Amino acid sequence: MDYGPALGKAPELLASAARGAGAGPDLTQGGGGNVSVKTGAELMLVKASGSRLGDVTPARGWALVNYGNIKRRIAAGSGGDAEFSDFILSQALPVKGQPPAKPSIETGFHSLLNTVVIHTHSVYANVLNMSAEGHKLGRELFPTAEFLPYKAPGAQLCAAINERAQPAAPQVFFLANHGLVAAHAGVEGALELNARVNERIKSGLGLPPFRPAGGGAGLSPANAALLARYGKSFLLSKVLSPDQALYCGPEALDGRCGEAENEVLAALFYILGCIEGLGLTPRFLTGPEIAYFDSMRSGRYNRK
Ligand SMILES: [Zn+2]
Fold it and tell me: Which CATH architecture has domain 5-205?
């Protein structure tokens, strides 16, 4: 059976959540970040793997999944990453009049949370997520939020979120070396919650304004200048996030890159600059964390 009219307003709601969440490169870079809307006890629309948030419309850029099955699978133990990722793909349902779309790898944790979930790689939240002292500072700003230590995106992260997810709204999760999750019963509430958290971090820490990278093909002048300051070997050996590992390899740092790589680099330099400016200590991924991520990348993990 193909789903279509039964989805009602959900595709429009998802598109407006995606527009709000993907509003700027300070919140999402490249294909990072995703949003979802649940339409009942079993069905959920979620950003498709490989789409940018800004490209999601009511007609495309999303997949329909049975999140009830995914939730039950996580509760029973999600198993290994490859198996879990195959299971998520197997829960995609056909939608009338739409080409088949693959759900994002991060569909797992969306399944566990409130009706509307906004997940971004916010540079402001990531100042807290990517520094050794950040989660302690974050708890002072957001006493009711959850702060999770680094978990590889996939089965491990879902298991950690499942342990902490409370059914009552609102839900805010800070994911170390990764990003921010805000979940709420409605789209407006979720977007407002997401915006409020970002504003509170900016004012609470006195963060400087974020400057977008600009430019298209090749390194933007701002990124090239900052790369010269930090050095290629520093950026290749000190990894703050899965996005850095995915987008900022030797080729990109040599200038063979486009908009997505420039966005990820600009975010990274902003975060490093803020951490330095606040006198905090960057928390880089450890050798085993990077090795685990590399093995996932060579398998099924893709640019969200
Ligand atoms: Zn993410």
Answer: 3-Layer(aba) Sandwich (3.40)
Q: Could you tell me the two tokens for 106?
A: 């991060």
Contact 67, 29 (CB under 8 A): no
Structure letter (DSSP) for residue 115:
S
Averaged pLDDT, 170-199: 95
How many Å lie between the centroid of ligand 1 and the Cα of residue 110?
A: 11
Q: CB within 5 A of ion ligand 1: which residues?
A: 179
pTM of the predicted protein model = 0.94
Q: In Å, what is the CA distance from 150 to each residue of 43, 157, 194?
A: 29, 8, 21
- Contact criterion met (CB below 8 Å) for 34 and 47: yes
- In angstroms, what is the span from residue 97 Cα to ligand 1's centroid? 29
Give pLDDT, residue 192. 96
Q: Confidence class of residue 304 from pLDDT cuts 50, 70 and 90?
A: very low
| Span 100-127, average pLDDT | 95
Ligand 1 center to 293 CA (angstroms): 13
What is the mean pLDDT of the segment spanning 25-35? 92
How does DSSP assign 17-78, residue by residue? Answer: HHHHHTSSTTT--TT--EEEEE-SSSEEEEEBTT--GGG--SSSSEEEEEHHHHHHHHHT--
Q: Which of 51-55, 166-170, 238-242, 271-275 has the lowest mean pLDDT?
A: 166-170
Measure 39 CA to ligand 1 centroid, in angstroms: 22
User: Distance between CA atoms of 234 and 238, rounded to whole angstroms?
Assistant: 6
Q: Would you kindly state where each structural domain of the chain is located, as residue ranges?
A: 5-205, 221-298
Q: At what angle do helices 81-90 and 67-75 cross, to 10 degrees?
A: 150
